[in-house]
């Protein structure tokens, strides 16, 4: 993979680890200093591909490959309008064709293939499905709001349980301190045996109940599908399996152009392993065998020994 560098000043993370890189719709990476200089007026061409860019269009780069960031942003933007679900189609095949169409549009925009035609295609889709887009946006917004409320409800329940545990522990400590205070007063005023008094109050302290966590009822979850659109308890779709020919293993034959090489099981008996160290426990755990390396060296030594140079090119 190429080193992450600015397309204008060619500075890289290797030279300056503190550099902050951003990307735009063209997918080329620039550092923060070059963006300040090159786009001082708010817009300008990309130093690499000369595509007109806006300064406010730059976003912080999250991945090492800027093309991944471009695809992620493009996908988010497209899915805001192409937000139909399986319920909006009469059959599963129509829904699958719709998903394939989305992937084609994203691929064309990311790879700069037929961009004008693709944008016209998107505009036409927006005009034809304006009501469905707005309806699904409102539905998605309500689901996100319900999810935020559920998360907030979970936080409140967790905080309530923690506070309840802290109150019970504080109450238990207070009772133990009260028993200790009564023990000191009894030792100071009573004429009885001190051992009997201590044992009595020790039993009182042991009888103090230990606080147990109380179960708190959680609010019901009103969601019917995952974030990917797959419904809960939905049976998996049938997969068509095409039978093909069975795999048949064929050992690899090496053309060495030299004398026959011994098998890996013959290395010990022929003396090849006499002066070679054994594997360590770490190497054995990783699956490394010293015999395999020795066999490769032997194969390299005998290969091409019978080959003759003819002088022809």
Distance between the termini: 36 Å
- Poorly predicted parts: none
Instruction: Please state the oligomeric state of the protein chains shown.
Output: single chain
pLDDT averaged residue by residue:
82
Report on this structure.
The protein has 313 residues and is mainly alpha-helical. It has 8 helices and 5 strands, in the order ββαβββααααααα. Strands 2-1-5 form a 3-stranded antiparallel β-sheet. The chain has a two-stranded antiparallel sheet with strand order 3-4. The two termini are 36 Å apart.
Mind sketching the topology for me?
Blueprint: E1 21-23, E2 29-31, H1 32-38, E3 43-45, E4 52-54, E5 59-60, H2 66-81, H3 92-110, H4 115-128, H5 130-189, H6 194-206, H7 281-285, H8 290-302
Antiparallel strand pairs: 1-2, 1-5, 3-4
Summary of the model, kept short:
It contains eight helices and five strands. It has 313 residues and is mainly α. The radius of gyration is 37 Å and the shape is extended.
């Amino acid at each position: 993979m190429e080193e992450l560098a600015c397309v204008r000043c060619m500075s890289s993370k290797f030279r300056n680890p503190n550099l902050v890189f951003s990307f735009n719709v063209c997918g080329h990476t620039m550092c923060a200093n070059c963006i300040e200089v090159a786009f001082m007026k708010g817009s300008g061409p990309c130093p690499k591909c000369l595509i007109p860019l806006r300064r406010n269009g730059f976003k912080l780069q999250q991945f090492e490959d800027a093309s991944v960031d471009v695809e992620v942003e493009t996908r988010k933007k497209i899915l805001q309008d192409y937000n139909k679900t399986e319920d909006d189609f009469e059959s599963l095949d129509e829904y699958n064709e719709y998903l394939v169409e989305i992937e084609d549009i994203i691929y064309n925009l990311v790879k700069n293939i037929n961009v004008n035609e693709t944008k016209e295609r998107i505009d036409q889709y927006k005009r034809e499905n304006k009501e469905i887009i707005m309806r699904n946006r409102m539905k998605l917004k309500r689901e996100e709001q319900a999810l935020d409320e559920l998360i907030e409800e979970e936080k409140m329940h967790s905080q309530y349980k923690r506070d309840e545990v802290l109150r019970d522990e504080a109450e238990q400590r207070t009772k133990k301190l009260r028993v200790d205070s009564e023990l000191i007063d009894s030792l100071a005023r009573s004429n009885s045996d001190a051992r009997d008094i201590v044992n009595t109050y020790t039993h009182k302290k042991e009888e103090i109940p230990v606080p147990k966590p109380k179960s708190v009822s959680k609010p019901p979850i009103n969601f019917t599908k995952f974030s990917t659109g797959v419904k809960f308890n939905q049976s998996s779709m049938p997969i068509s399996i095409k039978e093909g020919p069975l795999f048949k293993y064929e050992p690899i034959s090496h053309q060495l152009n030299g004398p026959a090489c011994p098998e890996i099981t013959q290395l010990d008996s022929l003396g090849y392993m006499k002066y070679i160290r054994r594997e360590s426990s770490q190497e054995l755990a990783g699956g490394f065998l010293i015999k395999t390396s020795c066999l490769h060296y032997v194969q390299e030594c005998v290969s091409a020994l019978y080959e003759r140079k003819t002088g022809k090119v």
